[in-house]
Amino acid sequence: MQPMYPYDIHMPLNLEPGKKYPTIFTLHGKGSNERNMFGLAAPLSEDFIVIGIRGNLPLGAGYQYYELKSLGNPIREIFDDAVKQLEGFIHYATEKYPIDPGKRYLLGFSQGAILSMTLALVMGEQLKGIVALNGYIPDFVKSEYPIRSVKDVSVFISHGEYDSVFPVRIGHETAEYLKDHTNRLEFKLYPTDHGVSEENQRDFVNWLKKDAGLST
């Protein structure tokens, strides 16, 4: 299979032959790229394979995975296709690289967080966990998608208290929805706008290490 998305891959320096590694797939925000996301995941690159997936639709100097009718309102056909193609990409990469299928994580910001949470609901326990930074779950995903059980999927959600793109109430609503679906939810607020603070990064890095059974 030829993957639909360009991607960067960062392997741990001392790869052991035959060993499978925990892996983080990163999904960037609208108008950004996979290199910006690697900056967030870099502290984990000694222990995890990090795969940055670039959106396939150009937007300004960056990229996106889907287009919008209006803020918070994805074009359904493009969004549906992105979810399907990203799920296919995760399986493609798992076959191609020494990825532990029991320790696959998604790390997404904004549009990437929206897709990470949607993929968790679609893939269920095929994923070990997700980190969703400043995102939401589209209503049509909740009401129309075939949702799998995520009761044993670990979920870290964070939101900026002063987010000017997705108001903080959206973070609370998203956490409340997922609280009903998984026992492994951590929800945190940070005194930021639509971005990721150093404290936020430190918290999810430590959370990922702990969840994957690595020392923090």
UniProtKB/TrEMBL annotation:
<feature type="domain" description="Phospholipase/carboxylesterase/thioesterase">
    <location>
        <begin position="22"/>
        <end position="209"/>
    </location>
</feature>
<dbReference type="InterPro" id="IPR003140">
    <property type="entry name" value="PLipase/COase/thioEstase"/>
</dbReference>
<dbReference type="InterPro" id="IPR050565">
    <property type="entry name" value="LYPA1-2/EST-like"/>
</dbReference>
<dbReference type="InterPro" id="IPR029058">
    <property type="entry name" value="AB_hydrolase_fold"/>
</dbReference>
<keyword id="KW-0378">Hydrolase</keyword>
<dbReference type="GO" id="GO:0016787">
    <property type="term" value="F:hydrolase activity"/>
</dbReference>
<dbReference type="Pfam" id="PF02230">
    <property type="entry name" value="Abhydrolase_2"/>
</dbReference>
<comment type="similarity">
    <text>Belongs to the AB hydrolase superfamily. AB hydrolase 2 family.</text>
</comment>
<protein>
    <submittedName>
        <fullName>Esterase</fullName>
    </submittedName>
</protein>
